[in-house]
Structures are given as C-alpha cells and as structure tokens.
Design brief:
CATH superfamily: Glycoside hydrolase/deacetylase
Largest sheet: 6 strands, parallel
Radius of gyration: 19 Å
Distance between the termini: 54 Å
Strand content: 5-15%
Helix content: 40-55%
Order of helices and strands: HEHEHHEHEHEEHEHE
Number of domains: 1
Oligomer: single chain
CATH topology: TIM Barrel
Structural class: alpha/beta
Length: 240
Amino acid sequence: MTKLPAIAASTLTAAAASAWTYAALSRGSQIFGKTIIAGSDPAQIALTFDDGPNDLATERLLEVLALHNVRATFFMIGNFVRQRSTIARAVAAAGHLVGNHTMTHPWLAWQSAARIRAELADTNALIQDTIGAPIHLFRPPHGARRPYVLRLARDLGLTTVQWNVIADDWKPVPAEVILERLQRGIGRNRRNGRSSNLLLHDGGHLSLGLPRIPTVEATARLLDLCRNTTTKFVTPDAWI
C-alpha cells in the first residue's frame, strides 16, 4: 500500500516537469508570458533571420531584399555585432529591423537571473550604441524562456518574438529544401487563417563565417515566387 503514494508523487513530478518543459520550449506557448507569434492575415509574411551578422550571407541578403524592396528583421548576437559592427550598421541603414538575440546564444530558461540580465541588457546596449537606434524586439535563443526572461525583456522595452515556420536551415541543406519547408509552412498557416513568421539563419551561433548562402538563395526564390501576388511582407512589430 505504501508504494501507491510514491508512484502518484512520481507521476505528478513527471507531469509537472513535462508541463514546465512545454511552457519553456514550445514556440507557441503563452503559459510563461505573452510572446508575438504571427497575425491573422494569411497574406502577411515576416522574414526573420537569426545569429548574424555574418560575413557574406548577411551582405548578400541585403542585396536580395533591396532588389525586392522588402524589409526583414535580423535578430543579432551581441558578440558578432561587436566583431562585425559595419555589417550591423548596414542592416539598420537599409531600413531593416534589428533585434536582440543575446550576447552568446545560451539556453536562457536554465540560466541564472544575473546571466539572463547580462545577456539581454548588454546586447541591448551594444546594438543600440552600434546602430544608433533603440532595440524593441527580442528572440530568445532556441525559443527557450521562463517567466523571468519575459519579464526582464519587458522591463528593457523588448517585445519577445517567436515564429510559426522554421526551415531548419542551420543544418547544411540545399536551397530547394529550405524553400520547400518555407512553402509548406506558409501553406499550412494560410489554411489555418494565420500570417507566417519565418525563422531563417544568416549566421550560426557557434562561430562567424558559417555558410548560409543556401538560405540567401531560398529567400531570393521565395521573393521571386511572391512577386505579383497578394503576399504582403511585414515585420513582427506589425503584430504587436
């Protein structure tokens, strides 16, 4: 008989751990606090790029976006902004939004309060000093957060942005695979009456110089396909 309470307690503990993990890692969860996912206009698409600024890829993306007169959002890693400040300034000068993606790309849900504050506040200060404009958007690395992360972001004037289409382009995959994943996600969202918030990568958190040209090519092809259609490219602040 004494085993039953222990089994019940173990089951409750496992369920609580599972619920906490879902709240911390699910891109759509609002349990720990409100985040921006996407809007309700199926014609809207937001292009967002993580882990830059990065040599070559970010600069080529600027050329592609300028050709199509489309604004995007770049969630930048502070350490890379420090090393590639010229690219970061070029992104802002071209009219794109620059967001906070922390200094070193840690899993914030499992960090101390002091580490979380340093990651967000130091990145805000560095990017703002680099581009000469305030930062209003934040994307937690891996989407991982806990209540303190979202509360601190708000205190720093940041709106937390997640996504609802991911191309898994941090892995070495061809442009056509990336494009197919984007199209599949956009199609799903449109059937569900939702806008599409696309998560792509112009860099990689492990180091500068990671090859992201397939992402650039996939972006160019998507923009070509959307030319002369009802698609409206927006930035996530449109959904705040």
